[in-house]
Amino acid sequence: MTSDKYYIPYLIPAAILTLALAIRLPVIMRFWRIDPNVRSLGGLLLLGSAVFYFGRPKTLALLNSSTGVSNFAAPLVYSLLTMFCASCLVMVIHWRGGDPRRVRRTIWTIWSVYASVVAGLWVTFAFADVPVERLRDLDTYYANTPWMREHILLYLGAHTAACLVTATVIRSWLREVAGWLRAGLVFLVVGFVLNLAYDAVKLIAVVARWTGHDLDWLSTYVAPPIASVCALFVAVGFILPHAGQAAQVLWTDYRQYRSLAPFVRELEGLDTGSLRLPRRTPLSRRLVQRRTLISDGLLRLQPYMDPGVRGRALAEALARDEAPDRAAATADAVAVAVAVRSLRRGVPAVAGAVAGAVAGPGAVAGAGAAGPGGVAARGADGVPVPGSAGGPDLVAVARALRRSPVVGSFRERS
């Protein structure tokens, strides 16, 4: 659909920028008063969305008719675009940081300059003679009109300067960051570079009018799709670091939650006092509860942890050429499996059982087992000492419980 009512080149980026604003809104509302970065980002996304919503031909016609002034929407939309440019520069200044006084002075200068540009837009429009309403080709139609010519050059110049500075500064940071933040900055750089292409296309069409040529199609049909793509890249650039990090955390939590399932099944029937969570409980809370359940179960099993069983399991795992860390996890898994069976069968507690035989959140670590700096202490064979800080984690033990042949062998023998 390319009608003025739906005008996809502007409707889609408006929706995407609104989505970006909605995603960031909780953070914006929480830190609006104390974090200038949050304020500049919120203002930038709000102004960017407004530019595309107000820039649709149907909205332009409505603004013109409601005020009774032909082309009244032009200085309004160009003012929003100019303030968006100022927001981009302010955001860059906040990101760069530095001396607070210098930052405040620079930001004040930026807002002063761009406020002057906005004032200039309204002054030049007031002096211009623009009686014919133009919803799509105003820039080229009035390119040779006194005062309107200056009006057009004013907003294009302000937009070009802001995009050039923003793209240059963000590009200089790419080597200093990594991960999702770097990916977001790449999208932002591409978006602002494409904004420069939008300005170039517009300016070429206007200059062509000055020289008696007709390249209006560049401004009317090429520039709007470029603006749409620009907005998509900018919106993704702001969404990606937050959404990507959140998705990564969610995926990591999900994998750990699933990986710990064999451990939970192994401890089924033990009295750990865990409460059943509602079905809609966030995954992060479910993961915490699962780890707590396992830790409480390990505390319940400690009197039945047989150091001799773990030692034999460790020797067998090493004999199967398992890596030291994996062999330690296998030995802990065997100790857990045998202790669970002993407890269920009513076997008396093991004399000399080691507290904290399996490392994990909430487990009681063996006193003095950790080496320098909190790194797990290791024996002569390089295997982590049971109960030491940083020893085999719960996920590794759960994995051994599910598929280690050594654990299966001890189950058959116990």
- Summed up, the helix count is 15
- β-strand amount: under 5%
Say what oligomer this is.
single chain
Shape: elongated
Contiguous runs where pLDDT drops below 50 for at least 5 residues: 1-6, 359-392
Tell me about this structure:
It is a single chain. The chain has 414 residues and is mostly helical. It is built from 15 helices and no strands. It has helices at residues 8-31, 36-54, 57-67, 73-96, 100-127, 138-141, 148-172, 179-210, 216-259, 261-266, 283-301, 307-319, 324-344, 394-403, 405-413. Helix 2 runs antiparallel to helix 4 (73-96). It is elongated and about 100 Å long. Residues 1-6 and 359-392 have low confidence and may be disordered.
In summary, what is this structure?
With 414 residues, this protein is mostly helical. Helix content is 70%, strand content 0%. Helix 4 (73-96) packs antiparallel against helix 5 (100-127).
